[in-house]
Amino acid sequence: MNMGKRVAGGVTAAGGFMAAGVAAGVKYEGRKDMALVYSEAPCIVAGVFTSNVVKAAPVVWDKEVVDSGRDVHAVIVNSGIANACTGKQGFAYCRETAEAAAEALGIREDGVLVASTGVIGMQLPMDKVRAGVHMLAGAKADSPEAGADAACAIMTTDTVSKEAAVTVEIGGKTVTVGGMCKGSGMIHPNMCTMLAFVTTDVRITRELLQEALRRDVQDTFNMISVDGDTSTNDTLLVLANGEAGNPLIAEKGEDYDAFCQALHEINEILAKKMAGDGEGATALFEAKVIHAANKDDARLLARSVICSSLTKAAIFGHDANWGRILCALGYSGAVFDPEKMELYFESRAGKMLIYRDGQAADYSEEEATKLLSEPEVTVIADMKMGEAAASAWGCDLSYEYVKINADYRS
Amino acid sequence: MNMGKRVAGGVTAAGGFMAAGVAAGVKYEGRKDMALVYSEAPCIVAGVFTSNVVKAAPVVWDKEVVDSGRDVHAVIVNSGIANACTGKQGFAYCRETAEAAAEALGIREDGVLVASTGVIGMQLPMDKVRAGVHMLAGAKADSPEAGADAACAIMTTDTVSKEAAVTVEIGGKTVTVGGMCKGSGMIHPNMCTMLAFVTTDVRITRELLQEALRRDVQDTFNMISVDGDTSTNDTLLVLANGEAGNPLIAEKGEDYDAFCQALHEINEILAKKMAGDGEGATALFEAKVIHAANKDDARLLARSVICSSLTKAAIFGHDANWGRILCALGYSGAVFDPEKMELYFESRAGKMLIYRDGQAADYSEEEATKLLSEPEVTVIADMKMGEAAASAWGCDLSYEYVKINADYRS
């Protein structure tokens, strides 16, 4: 499969998409806190949402829209307040936000998606949200700057905004897939929530778009974790408006595979950006499992390692404490032979065999610490069982994580 | 069921048990690091061990002894080095330790249990271990002081030693159950490992002792967590030498229930001590789930709350961030109605309704912070589903946790 071509921009990279980010004063002072993604042409939409029993009001709203199969035109996002655990009032506010967007943009209210991220249990200040929606409608543009504004407006404890876009040739046409996200994780997201929005001008059926998304998240967003807490608000939406003019992708085949590859690239890039910007993180930490007995085991093993608090703290300390990694593999639920497998550390500084034959390999702690002091660190677990592989991405556990979360609401 | 009577002491409280703790210089300098528990009279032994696929050598050794049904006389424990991921050599060291103990104590080597806790992947310095075993044999005594020495010697990052004992009347005789432990957790222990040793002079069959232990850990040691990492070394042993002279407990009934109650008290006390002394902890954090649909759900819900990093960080910050608790209940795997349940915080400072009807109750943040500033904090989740209840114990997540674990091996 050919890789997509990386291009500048995010949600406005694909043809026909506009965006905006404005300071509506929902909760934060002096920064952008509301975002719009908009397409004049109707979009089909696919979505995946938090598996948490406690679902925020916008998740309930969006699931209904996605399941209905209706075309959509806009997504309204606010940061600062999650609109979760807000009862009937909270759900009514989703409708009021959609109504305001419908009025400001001249579209149907049932074609508006909403998303929120921030503190749980607080009600949205609807006057400010309504005013924000009107500001967004006035500010919307198809420029890279407008996309960047939107990406900034959805941040909470994120330290950098997160965007990416790729192009791919499908049926003689250039198809663009772009996206933005915030937060850290899908299965195990930071409470301040993972939100991701992908836009594309591909022509594809709604069924295939949903299937492509559902399949791909297993190896991308579901393989990252910052702290093991699955948010009430996690939302990943893909909007497709067909403006690329490629022959409609209505069945699996070469065109579908090419689109899936582009979607996968965007999802993986965004997922890794989230993991690397986990709260308090100083390093992106990847666990790459190879030669596992099967794909499920490979995923279990990789995720177990990047979820281990002790391993994460050791990575923060640049300490080659491989025993903790072996331990995390051991309680993952996958079966393997600790005497047969091998562990390696890898980063820009090199690659090093750390463990084999049931005990430490002959390596230099000093060299290992140097290798682990890079901003991107990978542990490779060669299970010597079969042919399956998987990667998972997380980050280290730092003082800063505790600081951010001990005092998040103040 | 009558509660047992709390008495002073730990592993030497029960009749016929001796203990010792000495500084053998295994890894730590200037502190006790080897412990002995000994009974001249032969003991039956029950045990539960880590579920980790990667098992330390002493776990493999002890499982074999427990499964064999052989009588035992002694347990030798070292701190500093875990003897995990040490290959064949590590297992050979278990045997050499048992041989040394057999020689020093005049007992059979196959009646010696061993346990280790500390750094993974390092080999034991056997000269020091052998010398330590001989020191232990010389120092052993049945005094409370000897028990306290042993409890100190098994500590790693523990900040306090952990002992408890109770007595109970069975068949007209006073039966004592006492124990010591270190570390933090069974299902989710701190990598520096949970080790717990319970001694009792009850007369009971080996089968019933094992059953009592296996049943009780589900509500005690398996309900605590410090950081979600299941150690390679977790071991809980119960030794019974029959010296109380009660009529042999060979079937279930009043006597068995009385013993189970005493065992439960010791296990719960020790488990809570471990949770409260979790690495870096400033508070013991209890999650009490009531009116759950069934016992499995109650346990799932309670454990999910005390395992949530975000909730633990909020407890450290004395922040009544109940949304994180609701979120953790939501991803626990148990099904419930967030609109119907209620949440309370409770501590020595009082009890407060925090959440009901799907949203925040009308409470004072200031009062809540005061309540959460106590050294023992409980959240009560009333699921309004049925009659099942469960408690789980953890601790807050502090800067100190990160510090300890970023730099554990140096």
Describe the protein.
- The structure is a homodimer of 410-residue chains.
- Chain A contains 11 helices and 15 strands.
- The first copy, chain A, is 33% helix and 28% strand.
- Chain A is globular, with a radius of gyration of 22 Å.
- In chain A, the strands form 2 sheets. In chain A, strands 1, 2, 3, 4, 5, 6, 7, 8 and 9 form a 9-stranded mixed β-sheet that branches.
- In chain A, helix 1 (57-68) crosses helix 2 and helix 5 crosses helix 6.
- The first copy, chain A, has helices at 57-68, 87-105, 126-139, 144-153, 206-217, 254-276, 295-307, 309-316, 322-330, 365-371, 399-406; strands at residues 5-7, 17-22, 34-49, 72-81, 112-119, 162-170, 173-182, 195-200, 235-240, 284-292, 342-347, 350-356, 359-360, 376-382, 388-395.
- With 410 residues, chain A is of the alpha+beta class.
- At the A-B interface, helix 2, helix 8, helix 9, strand 13 and helix 11 of A face helix 2, helix 8, helix 9, strand 13 and helix 11 of B.
Q: Can you tell me the residue ranges of chain A where pLDDT is under 50 for at least 5 consecutive residues? A: none
State mean pLDDT of chain A (0 to 100 scale).
92
N- to C-terminal distance of chain A: 49 Å
Portion of residues in beta strands of chain A equals 25-35%
Query: What is the SS-derived class of chain A?
Result: alpha+beta
Succession of helices and strands of chain A: EEEHEHEHHEEEHEHEHHHEEEHEEH
| Greatest interface | A-B, 68 and 68 residues
Cα-based radius of gyration of chain A, to the nearest Å: 22 Å
Envelope shape of chain A: globular
Q: Helical segment tally of chain A?
A: 11
| Chain oligomer state | homodimer
State the total count of DSSP E strands of chain A: 15
Outline the biggest β-sheet of chain A: 9 strands, mixed
Classify the helix fraction of chain A into a percent range.
Answer: 25-40%
